[in-house]
Amino acid sequence: MQEIQKSVRIVFVLRNRTRDWPDLERLGECDIASQPQRFVGGRNSWIAQSYVRLAPALRERGYEVGLSDRFVPGAICIAHRDDANGFASRAADAFLVIVRADRAPVHACDLAIVQNGLDAAPHERFVPLWPQPGLLPRDASRGSAIRNLAYHGRLGSAPEWFGSKTFLRDLAARGVAFEAHATGWENYRDVDLALAARNESPRVLATKPATKLYNAWHAGVPLLAMPEPAYLEQRRSPLDFIEVRGPGDVLRAVDSLRRDRALYRALVANGLERAAEFGVQRTRDRWIALIEREVVPGFRALRANAAGRRFWHLGAMARQKVASRGHRVVVAWERWMDHPHGPRHSLDALRAAFTRESVQGHTLPDAEPSNLQR
After folding, report:
1. Is 373 a member of any domain?
2. Residues 297 and 233 in one domain
3. Of the candidates 262, 277, 292, which is a domain's last residue?
4. Of 102, 192, 95, 196, whose CA–CA distance to 147 is shortest?
5. Do 165 and 150 share a structural domain?
6. Is 364 inside any structural domain?
7. Is 245 exposed, middle or buried (0-12, 13-18, 19+ CB in 10 A)?
8. 308-359 pLDDT, tens per residue?
């Protein structure tokens, strides 16, 4: 078996290798923990990080593992969709494992890696994104006190109510501060409650991973989360996260947890137990299993039947380009419809003017019952 495996070459393809990762082959897992800021963004978190975490285990199994800034003929190539979206490459001569991330569907591939298991196409396989590099869990000495609420993530799609004076004032009246961290996503040391909320196109949300959920589990911090598809997919019990839809729900959740410290502790304990499903070793095992059970057999079959491969890739890439355009149009439309000054909110405002109903974003809304109230 070892002799057979040595004929299989696995290459992680990074177009930004020369610019951003000249030292990648020298890095180990300890470097991921000490340099978390480098492993941000699709290529870096999916491809660079996967190389560091998977290469030693793959080499132990006898595979030849390498890095390249281009597709290597005759190899299994693992790449991000952004690096696999062109006609002019030797991609057709490789076995293509392409990470879709939060992009449009991938057609020009042999297997696509997706960030959640919802509505996966026949050629798509769900592998969780690695947990947050260098994660610093909550200081256990804080007990069940609730003094800091934090959001970790990009701010471009943050809801307007993150900056609402009313919301911040109501939190302060409860002795709670709110911080939105655009950097330092690994630091949960002083976080008592984590928040996952964003205004985004449903088409984009359908592609997103549940990373904020399992990062909070790893950190020992209860999560207040909007009902994104990936979070709902992973929910097994009401203790997995507290569902919120707006600032009013956040305040009610804070009140509930301040009253019921046992519930806070139960959320933490449940999260730490669930976190094991999304740890580094479990994720590595899933990658290795996929490579050995599907990727390598598919690669061997491809080598025995390579005729017409380039013609296939040309057609698949054409379909991928069309899918990309369609995806962008739908996302732009959905974002426009849901924009604070877009048609949907204008209709809400008009309705409110005649019915005296509150408009979400201008008052603290009442939402559907959260899972705390069910």
Report:
1. no
2. no
3. 277
4. 192
5. yes
6. no
7. middle
8. 898 999 999 999 999 999 999 999 999 888 876 666 655 555 455 455 444 3
**Secondary structure of 279-344 in HEC code, one letter for each residue:** CHHHHHHHHHHHHHHHHHHHHHHHHHCCCCHHHHHHHHHHHHHHHHHHHHHHHHHHHHHHCCCCHH
Domain ranges, residue 227: 140-277
> Given pLDDT bands bounded at 50, 70 and 90, which one contains residue 306?
low
The yes-or-no verdict on residue 263 having pLDDT over 90 is yes
| Domain match, 124 and 22 both | yes
**Distance between CA atoms of residues 131 and 211, nearest Å:** 7
Q: What is the pLDDT of residue 352?
A: 52
pLDDT tens-digit map of 209-257: 999 999 999 999 999 999 999 999 999 999 999 999 999 999 999 999 9
Cα gap 46→61, rounded to integer Å = 21
Identify whether residues 172 and 121 lie together within a single domain: no
H helical segments located in the chain: 2-5, 17-20, 29-34, 42, 49-60, 165-173, 202-205, 211-219, 229-234, 247-259, 261-275, 280-290, 296-304, 309-338, 343-355
Task: Specify if 17 maps to a domain.
Answer: yes
Split into its structural domains, the chain has a count of 2
What is the domain-level CATH number for residue 171? 3.40.50.2000
- The answer, yes or no, to whether residue 307 has pLDDT greater than 80, is no
Residue 75 lies in a domain: yes
